[in-house]
Structure formats: structure tokens, C-alpha cells
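pls read this protein.

:::
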Amino acid sequence: MIASAHILIPLLIAAAYVLLMALLVKGWSQLGRCPPIKQTARVSVIIAARNEADNIGLCLQSLADQHYPRNRFEVLVVDDYSTDQTAATVEGFIRQNTEVDLHLIRQTGQTGKKAAIALALQQARGVYILTTDADCEVSPGWIAAMVSVMEGRQAVFVSGPVTFKDPAGLFQQLQDLEFMSLVASGAGSIGAGFPLMCNGANLGFSMEAYRSLQGDALRQQIASGDDVFLMLSMLNRFGSDKIAFARCRDALVFTRPAGTPVGFINQRLRWASKSRAYRNFPLILSAMIVFFMNAMLVFSLVAGLFTPRFLMWFLLVYLVKIFADLMVLTGFARFAQKPGLLWLVVPSEPLVAFYTTLVALAGQVVPARWKDRRVRGG
């Protein structure tokens, strides 16, 4: 009986993982193309910035270069107590680009990205709100594409694609591949009707819908997760058919990988810290399936070093996971025009499984730091 359980449980975990990945692939295929471009709605772009003097100039320039009527969008930059020249850089950009409706708002009282977004929302005049990060650059058609998806799909919330800009070296390419898997999973889950994740570097929502939400939709008591918590609030209020993903190359946003392994781990710990606050069953179940699949890969590899028969289990799980992950990654890699990264799936699987298992556990107890601040968990 015990021996049967040792075989049955891993098989059930592997089967559940493959099924989940298959649902995500089906969801990606059901997203459809971008609706016709519309350029009439008033849009507010919100950027929360802290110590981004080196990056925010490029971000603002990409917004100034938008293929969207200048009199139909505004940019609100909230300086979250930066200790560098972020505010001065924004002020300089405002002086040199008077044709852009750009405003600098200084954070008062509270701190953190969520408080910064909430402050900007009090002053925003747009029918639609778009958010990105200060270290990102947006495609020239970004605003038009995101608005077209919201209006064409009659969505109250839209998640957009994010990818790394010019990753250099193996470390950054591995980050790019892993990040693509997250974005692809989020996109596929939206297409499949059970939204799991999105990215605050590229999302939009209806201001009217936001105002109709009850309580603190951003969950400001938790430092991370402004994107996912807002999406889940919209999901609970309006249903999955009002949540959309912009499968449009014009909607791409480009960000940068972590510069060091320590920075990368800290980022992932910050993301993991919010998981205790999740109450959405599909999200919790999906996270458990992914965690146990990764943990099973790590366990079978470590156990195989002492008991050779476990190496057969490792090989089986390894091959199943490669197959399932490639199913999800292939579509998005082609969309992002990065199919050349797919070969990294084969050698990176054990490494990714090890660090994701470790981070998932450590994120519940180890405090992460971000922008010189300690991150609050759920």
C-alpha cells in the first residue's frame, strides 16, 4: 500500500502539472488578435518611481514617442521618496518636453508603490488607467493597443506582455526565459478563463470599474502584489470575461533583468511574500501544483545521489516537465520573437526547480528587501 502511494502520488502530481500547462496553452490560443486601433479615449499613465534616475528618462521618452494623440493622454510620475536624482530628472524632462502632459507628484505620508499608485489615482483624469514601471520602455503603439483591447473586448482590466530588452550573457538569458514562462502562464490563464497572474509593468483598467470596487483593492498593507490583487478584485467583481490579455506586439513593454543573483533572489522573495494573502482557489491550486512538481524534481535528484532507483524518477519527471514547459513557452517565445532561448529549457530545469522551491519556502519566513526597504508579507 505504501509502495503504491509512492508511485501514485508522483504520477498524480505530474499529470496535474501537464493538465495545467495544457490548459494554459489552450488559453493562449484562445486570446485572439488585437482589435482595430482606437485613439479617442482619455488615458492616464501612472508610474511609481523610487531611485530610478538612471532609467526613468528612457521610460518617459518612450511615452513621449507614443502613436497616440498628445491631447488624449497624461503621464503621472509619483516620486516615492527617492534619494537620488529621480525627481530632478523628471522635472528636467518636463521642461524640455512641454508638449507632453507630464506631471510629477511627490509622495506624502505613506510609502511604497501601492500608496504611490493610490495617490496618482486620486488625481488621474483618464477614462482608462495604464501602469508601467520607471525602469521600463514601452512600444510606440502601447497606449493605442491597450486601449483598443479594453474597448474592443469590453474589458475592465487588461494585462499586457512584458519581456526583457537585449539580455546579455547566460545569467540574463536564463532570467528572460523564466520571465517569459511567467508572462505566458498569466496570458494563458486569462485566455482559459481563470486569471492567475499579471505584471504591473504593463496593465490597464477602467477608472469607472476601479471606483466601483469595494474595500482596498490594492491591499496596501502588503508591499507587493499591486497588480495581482487588483486583477483578482476586478475578477471577483466583474467575472473572468471582463479580464483580457493584449496579445499584440504593439502592446509589448520592455524591462531589464536583475543585475546580480542577490538582486534576482530578493526580487523573487518579494514576489513570494504576498502568496499568504491569496484567497483565489484556482491561483492557490495552480501554485501548489507547480510547487510540488518542482519539489518532486529536486527531491528525486537529491535522493538519487544516495539511492540510484530515484534517478529513474528524476529522469521521468525531468522529461515530463521539459515537455510541458515547452508547450507553454513556445507560443510566447515566437510572439516575443525570442525562439532562440528555448534551448535553455533543457539545461535550466533542475536549477529553476531548485531555486523556485527554495524561494517559495523562504518567502514565507525570510524578509526581502527592495529599494532599500524591508518588504512586508501577507
